[in-house]
Amino acid sequence: MTKISSLNQMGLIIIIILTSLACVIGGETPANSETLAATQEAIAQTQVAISVQQTIQAQGVLPVDPTIMPQEIVTINPPQDDPCAGKSLVNSQGTSFCYEPSLAGSVTNEMVPAIVSEMSESFHEPSHIKFTFQGYAISPTFHTPVMHVYPVAAYTAINPFAQESITSLQTAIQAQSTNLEHMPFLPQWNAAQMMHMQTSYLTFHNGQGVRYLTQYGQSFWPINNEDLFYTFQGITNDGQYYISAILPVSHSSLPANGEAYAGDINNLGNNYESYLNDITNQINSQPAESFNPQLNQLDAMIESLLITP
Questions:
Q1: Is the per-residue pLDDT at 237 higher than 90?
Q2: Cβ-proximal residues to 232 (8 Å cutoff; 6+ apart), any chain
Q3: 82 lies in a domain?
Q4: pLDDT tens digits for 188-219?
Q5: Taking CA atoms, which of 56, 242, 268, 276 is between 20 and 30 Å from 203?
Q6: 143 and 231 in contact (C-beta within 8 Å)?
């Protein structure tokens, strides 16, 4: 009924306009040319409205205002340069970031209670948020793929080593140092940093830090895909939060694990420093895309970080 009624109303308008036009033709000249022009404009607008109305009726949809022209309807498309477009999003506990779906099936988070070690204060950790990457891109790996977000004030209050590491990180960021003997790293482990390579400084939404590849151990051991990992050590610009990401990576030029090392493990310690230098030069020469996961994809995830109180 609404469609028919609307067309009838328009028919009435046309009759009125045509009657006015007939007066002009029959000799009843309008008061001036402006009146004639207005009549012609009304006819033109009515013809357009009828055309739109007929189109809408054919489609079976009647808008609230049947005089709206189709070109006046604007479609807003999402931005094409969104760095998180097509990626999986995490937004929880004041931390948000995005990652490639190929990196993990999902990411879970939990509030880890404070850890008080009986061995040393350097192993103390405050209560903090931990993100765990489930269904990670590679396996098996020695390290669980995780990201920790530590409150700096609570960390340094219970752990003097944490204060030393954070200061070291801030100094390294300022100098953009890549040739340090040991790169800053938290949490403290009961093992040593054997080397660092593919070192690069990154900036995220509200902070900065350094990423590098490394392997920890308690004795001489081949650099291998089971123990190697990518880490990002960063801090927010306001100094309130420290981020530590530990994400296993692999490269086709490395053995699958220590046991698969092609050389003589028993003699490895005799020239271990030379061996590490060779491995470091070899890995540093590899493009980011040759690693699994790709280093540039891990970097993009870190750069998307936003940490809020």
A1: yes
A2: 202, 209, 210, 211, 243, 244, 245, 298, 302
A3: no
A4: 999 999 999 999 999 999 999 999 999 999 98
A5: 276
A6: no
Structural contact between residues 115 and 206, judged by C-beta atoms closer than 8 angstroms: no
Same domain, yes or no, for 186 and 287?
yes
Asked, for residue 77, whether it belongs to a domain, the answer is: no
Report the domain count for the chain: 2
pLDDT at position 177: 87
Q: Are 188 and 176 in contact (CB under 8 A)?
A: no
What does residue 244 show for φ and ψ, rounded to 5 degrees? Answer: -130, 110
Residue 228 and residue 190 share a domain: yes
Are 138 and 177 in a shared domain? yes
Task: Report yes or no on 81 lying in a domain.
Answer: no
Which domain, by its residues, includes 7?
Answer: 2-72
pLDDT digits (tens, 9 = 90+) for 157-177: 999 999 999 999 999 999 998
Phi, psi of 237 (to 5 degrees): -60, -30
Query: Where residue 37 falls among pLDDT bands split at 50, 70, 90?
Result: low
Q: Tell me the residue type at 169.
A: L
Whether 97 contacts 304, CB under 8 Å: yes
Q: Are residues 120 and 269 in the same domain?
A: yes
